[in-house]
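Record 1 of the preview.
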Amino acid sequence: MQPSIYGTDNRCLTDCLDAEPGIFRGVAVLDRDVTDDQLAVLSGKGVIGIRINLESTGAGNMEQALDAIRYWASRLAGTGWHIQIYAGYQLINDVLAQLGVLPITLVIDHFALVPPGLALGQLRISQLYRRLASGDVYIKLSGAYRVGTADDADRISRLAHSLFAANLERVVWGSDWPHTNRESGKLATQISAYRDVSPDLLARERSQWLLTDDIAYKILVENPARLYRFGDMTDSGKIG
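->
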């Protein structure tokens, strides 16, 4: 995933893809002036999605969000790419209420930033939950520290289980490595120290969320294989 701090400079991402051709998949951040030829090059390297980051950039305007999603959904329709959006919970619900059926898959990052204190009854009547249940969106379980504090661990686990109950086929997991951060007073594109998040903590969280082998296989293998098109990078699925 293209991190927020690099903006639309995807060279680190593409270097990683070039290091192991055909092994990895990438999700880029792009300006609208990217050409179709440039998209084709990225597709050939293994890029299969675009990330729209509204939360880190402070772009919380619903019209901006709708415009970005509609633009990229129209431009990338039929390519096999998806849109990944990082935005606040209320903004996501407002946007989903306005969006019809998209011609492209929509992935919502970081638990959709659902507040850990939100009652599950309220979550279940939200646009987010309804669209997840109907299979219109994927939700990524990643960066629990972006959702709440260590004191919220039990509530975040219950949130994960509630999302599974809505649609186990439309949830994936991500480590959020290398755990980027924005220090006080710095812009999204300025360098900040990484968060100190240990692999042991990630493993403990994951075991609390994925309670059975069957659930773990869905979240860690089957669903990402479908979403990220592992084994399905044929020429007909590429741009260009």
